[in-house]
Each structure stands twice: as C-alpha cells, then as structure tokens.
Amino acid sequence: MPATLPPALVAALVLLAAYLLGSLSGSLLLGRLRGVDVRTQGSGNAGGTNAFRTQGARFALGVVAIDLGKGALAAWLALQLAPAWAWWSLLAVMAGHVWPVWHGFRGGKGAAAGVGALLVLWPLAVALLVGLWLLVLIASGYVGLATVLAAASLPLWAWLLDAGAPASGFAVAIALFIAFTHRENLRRLWRGNELRFERARLLHRWRGRA
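Predicted structure:
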C-alpha cells in the first residue's frame, strides 16, 4: 500500500477487502463447480454444517478450508497494512460471510470466517473455543448450540487471560454477532425442533453402551 495514502483511507480499504474476502463463500463457490446451491437444500444455510449434511464430508472440508482461509487472510492483511484496525477486519470478514455481495447477500453464519481471523489475531482463544465446541457437540449433538456457547465463552476467556481492552471488547461483539446469526437455531432449540447431528453425539452413545 503506498505510503502516501492517508491512514483513514488505508483502514477503509483494508475493511473493504476483508468484507469482499468474506463474501467469497466456500460452499457457494464449490457448489458452482458441482452444479448445486446448498441454500436450496437442507437448512438453506450456506455454512459448513449444511454443506456436510447435503454434500458430504469431503465437500464440507473444502468449504471449511476456504472459510477459515479467508478469515485468516483478512486478519493478516489488516495486521500488515492497518494494525489498529485488525480486530475490525474480523467483524468485516464475518459480515461478508453472512451477507456476501457476490452471492445475493445470502450466506452463512460467520463462525468459520471468524475462527480463521482469530487464528491470526488470538490463536490461544481458538484452542479454547474448539475445545468447548467439541464438548457441547459431543454432549448434545447440536452444532448451533455448540457454536453459540463457544462464542459466548470468548468474553470469559478474555477476562481470565487478561487479554486487554481490544480483545475483550471484540470478544463481546463476536459473541453477540454469533448469537444473532444463530437466532433461528436458538428459536428451534426453544421449540424443541432443532436438528441434531446424531453421529457427533458420542456421549449419548457411550451411555447407551454402559
């Protein structure tokens, strides 16, 4: 980025780049190669879970790799060009994932893109989040619940680890963002008609064999 550009313009370009990167939806890009739109199948969401349920594990792995990668790239670019705006780039790439300009503003729920950015900005938090996510998933079989609870734990980890003001503030923002994008999952849980990922419900299997 040319040094002559005003810092405010550099920051704006970095955030725009993060949003545009976020708009590259893994499931929709790979779906075009396969001739399918996962938004017309299953839950209608363009995220990794629906990709797995409707297209299988290999397809879903490709989706997750793209969505993690774009989040990591957005955060890395922000650190290189506008470090003060790196945490804002995380929210921008998540927003792009949820409301992708390339795909009619109908995307996923932002979790994978956010995790990708956190891998660059706060990798320890990712280990803690993934650990809690797996525990909830194994215990309940609910992917959405596991994602919401993992995100909700971010402010607690920020406090326990003394992560500082920026990380703490954005931990709250991420938790609220994920709760918002998963609001339909939470409503279905309340009504008792949320889909379970039964194959991941290992604790239930172990109890059944005991």
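Summary: The two ends are 61 Å apart (CA to CA).
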